[in-house]
């Protein structure tokens, strides 16, 4: 799945997770570039998995922005991304606390370093380096997604939209209101799954 996403994105070597909103905010120029990149690539990535933008309508239509909680790719490329994100992740130029903010929590969030802001800006500056898993089949970020997005079938987590076994699940935003508590759902998986006999040894052999 990583290779299919990369190839459908023109060979971008880093695949990151998706999110339902462009958060935190970025300046107007990069913001426009991000939307242009989504318009250019998202359809091709979805098509590579026999999906389309309409596939998401029943789940969350705007599952299309950066979520930096999952990053996959060659180590050298990831190092370059991390160095870029460290430089770009600070607050936007001119960011300040308004005298009477409507949402103080949001301003505290927007006016500090944020790795997701950094990754978003780095993608806008280096689109040939980074792309997004718009399918949610490699990694699914569950914030605000409905309960029927995933199912547990025969001891495996199934992505109901794509009708495939889910690779990774990122239960992000558990401190925010959600229509379904994915954080508790994920904790429950450890009570349902049986440990793999000699699992650590099997993994070690597989990667050697």
List keywords for this structure.
3-stranded antiparallel beta sheet, 16% strand, alpha/beta, 208 residues, 8 strands, single chain
Describe the structure.
The chain has about 210 residues and is an alpha/beta fold. Helices cover about 40% and strands about 15% of the residues. It is built from seven helices and eight strands; from the N terminus they run H-E-H-E-H-H-H-E-E-E-E-E-E-H-H. It has helices at about 1-10, 30-45, 75-90, 105-110, 115-125, 180-190, 200-205; strands at about 15-20, 65-70, 130, 140, 150-155, 155-160, 165, 170. The strands form three sheets. Strands 2-1-3 form a three-stranded mixed sheet. A three-stranded antiparallel sheet has the order 5-6-7, with no helix packed on it. Helix 2 packs across helix 5 (about 115-125) and helix 3 (about 75-90) packs across helix 5 (about 115-125). The longest helix has 20 residues, at about 30-45. It is globular, with a radius of gyration of 18 Å. The model has no long low-confidence stretch (mean pLDDT about 85).
């Amino acid at each position: 799945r990583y290779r299919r996403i990369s190839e459908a994105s023109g060979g971008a070597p880093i695949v990151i997770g998706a999110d339902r909103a462009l958060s935190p905010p970025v300046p107007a120029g990069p913001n426009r570039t991000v939307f242009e990149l989504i318009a250019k690539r998202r359809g091709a990535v979805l098509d590579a998995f026999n999906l389309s933008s309409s596939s998401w309508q029943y789940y969350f239509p705007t599952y299309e922005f950066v979520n930096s909680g999952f990053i996959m790719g060659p180590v050298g490329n990831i190092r370059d991304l991390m160095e870029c994100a460290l430089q770009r992740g600070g607050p936007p130029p001119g960011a300040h606390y308004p005298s009477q903010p409507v949402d103080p929590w949001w301003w505290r969030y927007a006016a500090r370093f944020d790795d997701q802001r950094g990754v978003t800006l780095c993608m806008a500056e280096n689109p040939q380096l980074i792309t997004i898993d718009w399918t949610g089949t490699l990694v699914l970020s569950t914030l605000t997604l409905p309960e029927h997005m995933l199912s547990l079938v025969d001891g495996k987590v199934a992505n109901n939209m794509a009708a495939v076994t889910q690779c990774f699940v990122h239960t992000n935003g558990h401190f925010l209101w959600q229509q379904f508590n994915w954080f508790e759902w994920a904790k429950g998986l450890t009570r349902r799954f049986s440990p793999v006999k000699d699992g650590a040894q099997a993994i070690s052999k597989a990667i050697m």
